[in-house]
Amino acid sequence: MPARTQNRLPALILLATIAAGAALADADKKNGGTVIYRSTDEQGQTVFSDQPSRGAEQVEVKEPNRAPAVKPTARPEKKKADTYSSGYEVAITHPADGDFIANGLRGTNVSATVNPPLLPKHQLEFLHNGESLGAGSSYQTRIERLTPGGHQISARVLDRDGKVLGQSDITSITAQWPGSR
């Protein structure tokens, strides 16, 4: 390729990209997408336009995925976990406090530690926004879907009568959903 053509190539690519962007912004909507036309000029460069020209091929460009903006919520002041007579120390280990979940549709695994380990007569209950996700002997659970925005996760140890024997601090996370058509 001649040196003159090599020097002009980045500028032509930039120009084609700008022209394509302008064409996309102003083109008519058809079948749920934007219609533009692609052709080749005398120098063999690809040209995009919102107007058809001789030998131009119609190209449909669909709307890009868009995710709604997530409104940040004020993080509640952390309450220190109450001290319980049983001596159980409970902590959420995953996700970490302040984590951002980019795709809340995929679900999120939640894990906790309990010290000392649970006795057979005790259960670990996970809470999501104050609502129980269930109680059992497992140190982990899964939240199948997180709506966009702020969420609070905690865990607590319960005896057979439902009395709280130990509780974690609240872990605050923010979730977002990917855009969809």
Structure explained in plain terms:
The chain is mainly beta and 181 residues long. Strands 6, 8, 9, 11, 12 and 13 form a six-stranded mixed beta sheet that branches. Strands 1, 2, 3 and 4 form a four-stranded antiparallel beta sheet that branches. The protein is built from one helix and 13 strands; from the N terminus they run αβββββββββββββ.
Task: Set down the secondary structure blueprint.
Layout: H1 3-26, E1 29-30, E2 33-40, E3 46-49, E4 57-62, E5 89-94, E6 100-101, E7 108-115, E8 123-128, E9 131-136, E10 140-143, E11 149-158, E12 164-167, E13 171-175
Parallel strand pairs: 6-13
Antiparallel strand pairs: 1-2, 2-3, 2-4, 5-7, 7-10, 8-9, 8-11, 11-12, 11-13
